[in-house]
Amino acid sequence: MLSIIVASHGKFAEGIMQSAEMIFGKQEQVGSVTFMPNEGPDDLMEKYNQVLSNLDDGNEVLFLVDLWGGSPFNAASRIVAEHLDTMALVTGLNLPMLIEAYASRLTMNLEQIVPHLEETAKDGVKHLELKQDDGDDLL
What we know:
Blueprint: E1 3-9, H1 12-24, E2 30-35, H2 41-54, E3 61-65, H3 71-81, E4 87-91, H4 95-104, H5 110-123
Parallel strand pairs: 1-2, 1-3, 3-4
Helix pairs in contact: 1-4, 2-3, 4-5
C-alpha cells in the first residue's frame, strides 16, 4: 500500500487529515508533518525522518505538501530526490486531493497516482455561479 505524508506550514496538515478522516475514515500508513514558526529546516528534516521511520519499509511514499517552494516542500524535495524510484511529491494540497489519494492508493502506484491527483486537485476548485432572474431570487 502506498504510504502518505501530509505536510504544511502550521497545523493545516493535522486539520486536513482530521477532515479527511471524518469523510473517509481512519487511515493506516499516513503521517503528518507540521512546520511551526519557531522551527527551521533541520527541524523539518527530523520530523520527516521520524514519520518515515514509522511507515512500513518497502512502501512507496507520496508527500502531499501545502505550497510549492515553501520550507516543507524544500525539505521533502531533498528526501524525494534521493529516492526517485519510491517517492514522489505533489503540492497544492486540498481536501479533494487527500481524499482521492486515500481512495486511489490501494490500486495505483506513484507513477499513476501523481497525475491523477493533480487533476483531482484542479477539479476540486470550483465556484458557485449565482444568476439573478428578476432581481429578487438568486440561483
